[in-house]
Amino acid sequence: MDFQTQNSVCKYMVSLIPAGVRTVLEPTPGEGNLVRALAGYQVTAPTEFWEVSGRWEAVVMNPPFSPMDEGYRILYAVMEMSDIIIALMPWLTLINSEKRTDDINRYGLKSVTHLPRSAFKGSRVQTCILDMRKGYTGGKSIHFLSARHLEADHG
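Below the sequence we write its predicted structure tokens.
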């Protein structure tokens, strides 16, 4: 089954982009829902991520969850390409690897938004949105947010 990012989730992710950002990388565009939501930005959306190099002001992404190690490799790669990352990831990203959690915190985890299971109808993977800002310490506090209002849509 193919789980594309729902429009309501895309809009929420785009709302996390700080003012002043112009260039955005969407490294795994799939059917292009995030790319369409990024209208107004200069977006790079490659067909094959591993052929991309350079720097962007922000990365907004929903990498593949199957196999998840591919999604993790992409997350680590974009940590070198931008100082702002907004990533839709499985909760397991934060809880099944102490090293990965430490790496994400060292990079700068500003907030985690919990998505309701209904955001992706038929999916058995619990998801969240990581708002990462390189160097962010926030007084050592991370904001945990709920996005119960982001239900699955069909548009």
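The beta strands are 23-25, 42-44, 58-61, 84-90, 109-114, 127-133, 143-146.
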